[in-house]
Amino acid sequence: MALPGTTILETRRAKIARASVPILALLTALIALSMLILWLTATPVRQHQWPHVFLMKSNTALSLLVLALCLFALWTERPVFKIAAAVCACLVIVFVAAVLTEYVVPIDFGIDQWIATDHTVDRWPGRTSVGMAVALLMMGTAYVLLLSSRDSLLAQAVLLAALFIPITTLGGYLYRAPDLAPLYRASVASWQSIACTLFLCVGGFCLRPGAGLLRILLSESGGGTVARRLLAAAIIMPSTVGASILYAERIGLVDNAVGFAALITSSALFFAGAVWIVSAMMLRAESAKAQADSTRASAERLVQVGEQRLRIALEAARLGTWEYLVESEELITSAQCKAIYGLAPAHPFSYSDFLAAISSDQRERVQASALQALSASSDYKEQYEVKWPDGTLHWVLAYGRPLIDERGNPRMVGVSLDVTESVQFREALELADRRKDEFLATLAHELRNPLAPIRQAVTVARSDAVSTAQRSWGLNVIDRQASHMAVLLDDLLDISRITRGQLTLQKDWIDIGSVVDAAMETAQPAINAKAQSVRLNVPRDSAAVFLDPVRTAQMLSNLLINAAKYSAPGTEISVNVANEGDSLEFSVRDQGIGIAADMLTRIFEMFTQIELDRARSGGGLGIGLALVRGLAVLHGGTVTAHSEGLGKGSEFLISLPRTTRSAIPTPSVSAPIPTSRRRVLAADDNIDALETMKLLLELDGHEVVIAFDGEAALALAEQTTPEVMLLDLGMPGLSGFELAARVRERPWGNRITLIAITGWGQAEDRKRSLSAGFDHHLTKPIDFEALRVLLSQPS
């Protein structure tokens, strides 16, 4: 784990140092275990032959092996292994205490005979030397101290002292110190013991790389850099120079005075070099500091630029910043934040003012959420409604994050955003979604209504006891209800075309009275159903106007039907047509349920119906008035609604631009085109629709063959070569489009009249069918009179 304030490189060095601990422990264990095996297997002769090998005593080897195990246990940092490490360290301490007691007091515990018998003739047969015993005691004590992380510095000091003994012994070997008795005789240690002691001491240092001397060596500071560069030279160079001079004196190259002078000179040169290196490093440190100051200045400039960019971004995003100091309950806000609450930049805005601005039913929730975020140190997010000083209501979305300042005081910083438009947009979407669901339910209801009388009329017509008049009545019911369903579908298609801007008006010079008569004819059944009366006020001397006669009559009939739906039986409906300047105005007034003031503009939106007394409306999809507005806009006009309130009736006014001329040309009446017998192939996957069409065509004298899919129709066409093909576009397998393309590829295909029969009637659908090779496009339910006209035309 990285220590606070350490760099990445320091952390990496610390990991490497700690990873070396088990390797050092393993090397020590291998050396000690090898020596134990040699002692257990060696004969007296072999001990006399290899005296330098057996200089490490068996007791010393066992103690070093136990300390290696103790070092590894400390490295694992597991509770069980820590206990084992403590036991191992204590065993070594007890052992070396017994050895030292044997040296101080003339008592022989026989420790040297416990493991193996020493037959060598060295100075201390079988015994661990005094210096090695002291080193083992220090290492055991240091390991006990390392069990507690608080005593790391003391443990490293003890290990540093323990290093003095193997280093001194190593110097004795280098300088041939046996002649320097008795000091050497008291501290002698074998080469194996020196290596193991060095491994164990260095391993102890590496256990705590974040403390003491090792932390200095691993750090990136100036002191650490100097220590890493000079420490090795400070140890190796004096030792090397001293050994070289002593060796030269021994072989007679120099005398003692010259050797002493060389030693002083080399020491002076070494310290001069050290001063030069330290000075160079200090100069480099000063240069690095200057560069760091320059970098810091650049960073500060970048911070200022970043703050400016952040301020611009906050202003562009209309985000207001705020800071809440918990202890003093002080609220610090930006100018944009105050604007979100409807306040001027200089207007005071305290925490109590903030709470007062929040709607009363949401204030407690917002406070509880902020307290929860502060206590749990989690992010704060709330959306709430606020009241501006001018009385308007707005929605605010606030984000915040708890922080602790340098004094330990809690605070929260965050941003706020005015989300009134998005909330209103979401509410509008939800309202539109509810209206869509209501429309779909109403559409299903409106489509089911005609099905009941149709099925009942079919049952009547199938009855053997039915009279001719009753059968005729049933057929009239079927025709009337089918026409009603066709009107519903036409209205849906019209409103879709208007919404997508694909409805084209067919304007012509028409008489106003004829438009009113057509609208009355369409609305008369709904008016008669409630025994209502209509009072017409149409000027008889009105000039011709340039309008779409069908769409104008459709607008007026929709208003008449709407007035009949929402008016009581027996009431009167007034229709007034007037020329007002450059406008032609159609007014429809009823004595119905009226319209609330807030609905006067919304009544023209898609799928909108008045909730009050909806049952009296007799159904409807809620698209009639939207269709009227769309058609009026296409004409360049407007439609408005007026009502004095609920229960006081309503008036709808259509205003269209008026373009007149003095006379209306008499339309030419074309003579009816005589019908002729044609060979017809009809294809549709709807069996009932296909067989019904076949029967109607045969009643007109045509020769008809049918197919229920595209592949069968193509094969039948190759056999019969029809003059006319009536093709459904949505057949499975080979569609009507693909079938038309294949027919046109045949040699006889160009002589055939192709007519598309489909439920898709948009402008894109017609263009696609014509591009596929069709000559005509009829929309289901088809007008059979229109089909008769097409069949009467030559191929």
Topology:
Layout: H1 8-19, H2 21-41, H3 44-49, H4 58-76, H5 79-104, H6 130-146, H7 152-174, H8 183-187, H9 191-207, H10 212-218, H11 222-250, H12 256-316, E1 319-325, E2 330-333, H13 335-340, H14 351-357, H15 360-376, E3 380-387, E4 393-404, E5 410-418, H16 420-462, H17 468-499, E6 508-510, H18 512-529, E7 533-537, E8 544-547, H19 549-565, E9 572-580, E10 583-590, H20 624-634, E11 638-642, E12 650-657, E13 660-661, E14 679-683, H21 687-699, E15 703-707, H22 710-720, E16 724-728, H23 736-745, E17 753-758, H24 763-771, E18 776-779, H25 784-792
Model description:
Strands 2-1-5-4-3 form a five-stranded antiparallel β-sheet, with helices on both faces. Strands 7-9-10-12-11 form a five-stranded mixed β-sheet, covered by helices on one side. The N terminus is likely disordered. The chain is built from 25 helices and 18 strands. The relative contact order is 0.04. Helix 23 links the parallel strand 16 and strand 17. Helix 2 packs antiparallel against helix 4, helix 6 packs parallel to helix 9 and helix 11 runs antiparallel to helix 12. By secondary structure, the protein is of the alpha/beta class.
Essential attributes:
single chain; 795 residues; alpha/beta; 25 helices
Strand content: 5-15%
| Number of DSSP-assigned strands | 18
Number of helices: 25
> What low-confidence regions span 5 or more consecutive residues with pLDDT below 50?
1-5, 177-187, 612-617, 662-673
Q: Name the strands of the widest sheet in spatial order.
A: 2-1-5-4-3
Helix content: 55-70%
Indicate the mean pLDDT.
Answer: 78
Measured between the Cα atoms of the first and last residue, the distance is 92 Å
Question: How would you describe the shape?
Answer: elongated
Largest sheet: 5 strands, antiparallel
The secondary-structure class comes to alpha/beta
Which radius of gyration do the C-alpha atoms yield?
54 Å
